[in-house]
Amino acid sequence: MILIKRFFIIIACILFCAVSSDASAVTIESVNPNENIFQYIRRTQGSFNQTLYQKIVGASNEFKEGDQALGLAASNETSRANARILLSNTKVKDIHNNPLFEDNLQELIWKTIDASQYNKVKEKTLQEIKKFLLARSESDIKGIMGGLNSDVIGCVVKLMSNRELIIIGQKVFNPLPGSKIGAKGYLGARIQPNSPTDNPEDIIWQVFNGWSYATGDLTLGTNPVSDSVENIAAIEKALKDVLTTFGIEQVMPWCVLAHIDKQAEVEKQYPGETALWFQSLAGCDQANQTFDLTIDKMMNYAKMRKTKFGLYFETGQGADFTNGAGNGFDMVIHESRKYGFARALAKEMEKASGNGKVWNHLNDVAGFIGPEIFKTREQLVRCCLEDIVLGKLHGLCLGLDICSTLHMPVTLDDLDWCMDQIMPANPAYLMGLPTKNDPMLSYLTTGFQDHVRLREKFGYKVSDAMWEFFKRIKIVDSNDKYTEHFGDPIWVYYQYLLAKGDQRSKEQIYTEGEASIKRIEARGVPIARGYGNKLWELNSELKERIRALYEDAKVSLKTEFTPEFIETVPNALLISTNSENRDDYIAHPPTGETLSPLAINALYKLRKSWAGEMPDIQIVISDGLNAKAIMDKDHLLPYLTAVKEAFASVGYTISEKNILLKLGRVRAGYKIGGILYGQKGTDKPKVILHIIGERPGSGHHNYSVYIAAPTAETWAKNAVDHDIARVVSGISDTAYQPEAAAKETLFIVKEMTAK
Q: Helices marked H in 247-403 — which ranges?
């Protein structure tokens, strides 16, 4: 299940005489030279003010649109400089004892601070800590960083320039136990073999593809389309088979990036089929609840991870407030608190294992959400450098997904520039796919051949054990040079079958391999083969294909429902959100989550027309980020026909009206459910099926169906969000077939309504 995060903000604007702010700016006109934050607040306000404290800390950040949306961004460079002066003069103990936000996660972070190390630094100012980090050795830094809580680390990072962040990145390393992954001079790769249909053939061939470029040493990690236990288990089995066939299952693990509850259930039903377990983390209790997480749940899972391969975390600046949990503090502090959570879980796993040699690592997905977080390539670089240092100072082995969405103004070429700015800070690893374009998640990231270029340019190495493996399968020769098999995934497939004892000739296996690649590419999954003018360039045909997908995505983002399409939707009730147009919708996501006054009136009329006989199910159809996903031939209507027949066959009633929502986002569907079903008279679950266009970029023009099925009481409280919703994703005539998606929809709804 892929939950694409959407923007949800409620901002309370509070004006101060010394700090003026609105929804977009914080102004700090003047400060005294040696004044700290708390002295400034008392001088200007008469007493401590938590909101002003949060605003000053936020204003010290480099500018990002996400902080601006929360009213935490500095209005100008003078205000930013003044905020940094106040922060620089503030002591560690004052930040430590006055958290920017207090909840159960903050309590956990406090509990995992090393008291003796804290006593070394508590009287130092943040400026003194910054100077210490820049001047002292790695061993000296590791002698104090356990005493720095997440708020302190986040605040220190705000005071550093990009160059200073790189200096820290170049001298602090937290490698995985018994491995060079995360060590100085090494750059690993998580192979991300995603398939729009969860097809095992697509998945394992992307592994062969990565290894043909001597790339992929951290983990084999697939993002699944379907979150059913059976589907997750099938992917786990396929990944495990590749590693065990080559005898390297103790060199690197496999992982399916489903919710941790589902992975635990897979392990329970199919013991030994899982290796590394995954979970996204948030920076406050409220946002973790959106992920269906609690502190206790994660700590209990940490205690269970007693084997070599523990937990794999993912985070990203902006994920909290786009899930309605900004809580008045900025994105850097949110991100730092996530790393504090990860550090606490790592400590728990070290205790549980008995020897402390558990692999735990964190992937910072820096640009995955969209332009509501930040827009430019320079901001992406800044975000990645901040997060590298946040992670390293928390003692984590931290990798990056240097990425952007197709609705951000960051191009394919821009990503290369970003990599070159970030790589001197030596993150532990990056993502690895056949190209920069993920065929399922529809975003831009790092391809296998990007790793080849970065290793050449910066002198980084693959982990020693996997480099020996690449020599064994003859991708690399005894002189550490690439062989004639470089960039040939069929050669790796051939080696795989030889390891299985296949006695067929090389020619027969190559013929079979060519047929496999043809099938895979027909499903919209590219396979990189060979190279262009340089080893790190895609072959010319594939390069052109990826450029074409990029251009198609840009057109798709601007596309609206056409009058001709609207006419084809049976019994359509056409309504809109508060977005003014596509540009407004993309730039200001909250406008697409709220309904226009006319839409609200139309929905109340629809509810009234039911005369108290509410149908079990209401279908909502939104354009989302790609109206083409809904309008393309054989996309929507086959699903509508199949899903209505399926539900009718087991006794569900479906509204005669199909609500057609222009400029709609996922949470707008929850708002519709609140209006239609949020009334007394029944405790029976009522269902919203929200069909919505997914991010463009894969070429499939996929859509998803978000499913919410609470009772009227929950609908009435406006308490419906992603944590109680399910989703069927990747639906199109070239990916997950609409008829099959309809069957899965019925299965999920029956589970959710216990029918």
A: 260-269, 285-290, 295-304, 331-353, 377-393
- Which whole number is the average pLDDT over 378-397? 98
Q: Are the beta carbons of 325 and 374 closer than 8 angstroms? A: no
Q: What is the pLDDT of residues 190-238, one digit of tens each?
A: 999 999 999 999 999 999 999 999 999 999 999 999 889 999 999 999 9
Cross-strand pairs, 189: 430
Report the alpha-carbon angle 147-150-155, nearest 5.
105
Q: Where are the alpha helices (DSSP H) in 178-311?
A: 200-212, 229-246, 260-269, 285-290, 295-304
pLDDT in tens, 80-93: 999 999 999 999 99
Task: Using CB atoms within 10 Å of the CB of residue 46, give its burial: 0 to 12 exposed, 13 to 18 middle, 19+ buried.
Answer: exposed
Structure pTM? 0.92
Can you tell me which residue has the tokens 């009718």? Answer: 648
Give residues with Cβ within 8 angstroms of 71, minimum separation 6: 11, 13, 21, 22, 23, 24, 25, 26, 55
DSSP structure class, residue 680:
S
Residue type, 673: G
Tokens, residue 181: 């992954």
Answer for the pair 592, 663: CB distance below 8 angstroms, yes or no: yes
Could you give the dihedral angle defined by the CA atoms of residues 565, 569, 574 and 577, in that order, rounded to the nearest 10 degrees? Answer: -70
For residue 667, the surrounding DSSP H or E stretch is: helix 666-677
Strand partners, 361: 312
Tell me whether strands 254-256 and 404-405 are parallel, antiparallel or unpaired: unpaired
* Cross-strand partners of 285: none
Count of H-run helices and E-run strands, the chain: 32, 18
Query: Which is nearest to 692 in space by CA: 600, 629, 614?
Result: 629
Alpha-carbon span 294 to 279, nearest angstrom: 12
User: Sign of the CA dihedral 201, 267, 347, 358?
Assistant: negative
Tell which residue, 437, 631, 649, has the closest CA to residue 546: 437
How far is residue 381's CA from residue 377's CA, in Å, rounded to a whole number?
6
| Residues sharing a CB contact under 8 Å with residue 19, sequence separation 6 or more, in sequence order | 26, 27, 28, 44, 52, 55, 56
Q: How far apart are CA 118 and CA 127, in angstroms?
A: 16
Retrieve residue 197's tokens.
């249909």
The size of the chain, in residues, is: 755
* Chain segment 652-680, per-residue pLDDT in tens: 999 999 999 999 999 999 999 999 999 87
Q: Are 156 and 128 in contact (CB under 8 A)?
A: no
Determine the Cα angle at 590 with ends 736 and 720, to 5°.
65
711: its two tokens: 């009772």
pLDDT at residue 590 greater than cutoff 80: yes
CA distances from 462 to 213, 215, 228, 459, 468 (A): 11, 7, 34, 10, 10
Residue 412: name the closest of 557, 519, 553, 316 by CA.
553
CA distance 513 to 587: 44
